[in-house]
Write a structure and sequence with these properties.
Helix content is about 25%, strand content about 30%. The chain is an alpha+beta fold and about 100 residues long. It has a single domain, classed as Conserved Hypothetical Protein Mth637, Chain: A (2-Layer Sandwich), CATH 3.30.1200. The chain has a five-stranded mixed β-sheet with strand order 2-3-1-5-4, covered by helices on one side.
């Protein structure tokens, strides 16, 4: 499991009212809302911490591969199986009201 790498494409919405997974953006990216502003890497740090908490992995197992200064980010996850990550994300997405 430790050698497995998962790539996620994220769309980040900074300065939101709360940290949450908000759905799918454009059919290609997981949309995440973060309370942090996009200043001095604050949103990137918040993104890493939020994903680690949601997926139950260490922050060191979440790495931003590209998009450090963009809303669209490519994230690498380690320390979790593909099936485990997929199941958690699907469960969270199912909890989102269809109007989101």
């Amino acid at each position: 499991m430790d050698k497995e790498r998962i790539l996620l494409r994220l769309y980040i919405q900074p300065r939101a009212s709360k940290n949450e997974i908000a759905g799918i953006h454009g059919g290609t990216a997981l949309k995440i809302r973060l309370t942090s502003p996009p200043v001095d890497g604050a949103a990137n740090s918040a993104c890493i911490e939020f994903l680690a908490n949601v997926l139950g992995i260490r922050k060191s197992h979440v790495e931003i591969l590209s998009g450090q200064k963009s809303r669209i980010k490519q994230i690498k996850l380690t320390g979790i199986s593909l099936q485990g990550a997929e199941d958690l994300i699907k469960f969270i997405l199912q909890q989102i009201p269809s109007t989101a």
